[in-house]
Structure to design on (496 residues):
């Protein structure tokens, strides 16, 4: 069979295979080869295009150009050069590609060898190439390559007078295309096959192909009519559904209109009721604001009254013997009450001071070294940095926490003072110890003052509430870390 006819038939029916580069951009060398006036010039440019594509890693285009160059060698009777070029292309594919893609590329090269052996009328060699192509098509896992293989088999059988086998293979291919409703492709296949038989003077092939074509045409017409009827039925069903939908839409619109009218009436009634409720709410809110303001004033008066009592007691307490525990406890209690009252009622802005964190933390830790029990380890973890903060309040809070830690940390324990920068505007001081910890029921009220009657010689319970008020004055907070379970950890968080 003439190779030009074979290539034409292949392009009309199957679009070649998945490795075709129809949509890829062709190089200038390939374009020159396609428009060359002579076979040597075209062959030379195809070889140059092949080498150029290989260098760029565009193997699909490279193999196509190489196969065309080999075909032109064969057309000029230079068969040795053609086979040598195909061997080089196979070697290049082995070096540049792998897997399914390599198998698809090898398929193109082997197909060119098949065309040459069929031209030489060597059925055994051609059959051997078909077997190789079948393995390559299966390895490529590409349905288009497998369809092309069926066509090549049909051409092989028809070319060597094996019409029965050719009919079987061709029927298989036609059935696959028909199943996917690609009727035009199958029609072109039959027409081209008949034309090919006429050009090769193969009357048997023409007669058989024409007979098969008529049979297929009859069956396809029935399928097309069935598809058309199904399409019309679907269109009718869609139109009926559209009409029903429009009827339903009109009914729905009327229902919506009636519903909106009812809703409008209900909204009008709701607006009246809402206006009454809003008026009552405004009156109640005004009353509650008066109550809240009154409570604030009362709290301020209470705090001032307590502070005044404490201040009036102070001169008397100063005359007592401060060496006695009871007197010392009473004096401390009076001082704590004054401090707490001042914190609650003060509205002054907090002054900030630039502070070196490492030396600040070390200084605080040094103040409790003589208060810890035997073999207690003191650790400071503070980065070298400067922070703006209220040094007086922070020192008071941390020193109180460290003093408590020294009291409750047993021999051989550890106390930590750490500083951590959490974000651009948030930083924390952490005081941790390996003491007995604070029970869950006490944690909830540990920062609230005056919740129980206490023996003042054992502490008045105002230390942590004062620390909490100081933290809040600095736009921060003081909390117990619930996730620390090896003792107690307090977290002083500040915001700049």
């Amino acid at each position: 069979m003439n190779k030009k006819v074979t290539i034409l038939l292949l392009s009309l029916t199957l679009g070649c295979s998945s490795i075709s580069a129809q949509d890829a951009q062709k190089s200038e060398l390939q374009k020159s080869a396609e428009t060359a006036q002579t076979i040597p010039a075209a062959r030379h440019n195809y070889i140059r295009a092949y080498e150029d594509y290989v260098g760029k890693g565009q193997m699909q285009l490279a193999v196509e150009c190489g196969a065309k160059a080999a075909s032109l060698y064969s057309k000029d009777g230079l068969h040795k050069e053609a086979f040598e070029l195909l061997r080089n292309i196979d070697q290049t594919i082995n070096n540049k590609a792998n897997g399914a893609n390599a198998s698809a590329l090898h398929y193109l090269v082997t197909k060119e060898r098949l065309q040459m052996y069929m031209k030489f009328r060597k059925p055994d060699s051609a059959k051997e190439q078909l077997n190789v192509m079948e393995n390559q098509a299966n390895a490529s896992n590409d349905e288009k390559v497998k369809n092309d293989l069926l066509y090549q088999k049909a051409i092989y059988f028809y070319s060597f007078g094996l019409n029965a086998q050719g009919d079987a293979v061709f029927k298989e291919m036609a059935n696959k295309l028909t199943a996917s409703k690609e009727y035009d492709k199958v029609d072109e296949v039959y027409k081209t096959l008949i034309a090919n038989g006429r050009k090769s003077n193969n009357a048997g092939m023409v007669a058989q192909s024409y007979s098969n074509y008529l049979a297929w045409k009859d069956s396809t017409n029935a399928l097309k009519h069935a598809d058309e009827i199904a399409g019309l039925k679907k269109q009718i069903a869609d139109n009926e559904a559209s009409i029903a939908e429009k009827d339903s839409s009109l009914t729905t619109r009327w229902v919506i209109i009636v519903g909106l009218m009812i809703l409008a009436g209900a909204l009008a009634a709701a607006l009246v009721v809402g206006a009454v409720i809003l008026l009552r709410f405004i009156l109640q809110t005004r009353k509650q604001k008066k109550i809240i303001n009154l409570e604030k004033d009362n709290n301020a008066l209470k705090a001032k009254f307590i502070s005044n009592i404490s201040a009036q007691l102070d001169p008397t307490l100063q005359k007592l013997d401060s060496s006695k525990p009871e007197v010392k406890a009473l004096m401390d209690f009076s001082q704590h009450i004054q401090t707490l009252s001042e914190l609650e009622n003060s509205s002054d802005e907090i002054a900030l001071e630039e502070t070196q964190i490492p030396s600040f933390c070390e200084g605080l830790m040094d103040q409790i070294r003589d208060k810890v029990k035997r073999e207690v380890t003191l650790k400071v973890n503070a980065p070298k940095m400067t922070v703006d903060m209220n040094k007086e309040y922070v020192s008071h809070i941390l020193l109180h926490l460290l003093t408590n830690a020294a009291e409750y940390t047993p021999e051989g324990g550890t106390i930590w003072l750490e500083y951590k920068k959490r974000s651009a505007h948030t930083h924390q001081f952490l005081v941790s110890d390996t003491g007995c910890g604070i029970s869950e029921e006490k944690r909830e009220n540990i920062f609230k003052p005056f919740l129980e009657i206490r023996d003042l010689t054992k502490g008045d319970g105002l230390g942590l509430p004062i620390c909490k008020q100081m933290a809040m004055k600095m736009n921060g907070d003081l909390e117990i870390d619930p996730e620390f379970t090896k003792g107690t950890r307090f977290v002083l968080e500040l915001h700049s």
User: Anything to note?
Assistant: The first helix runs from residue 3 to 13. The beta strands are 353-356, 377-381, 386-389, 414-423, 426-433, 477-480, 488-495.
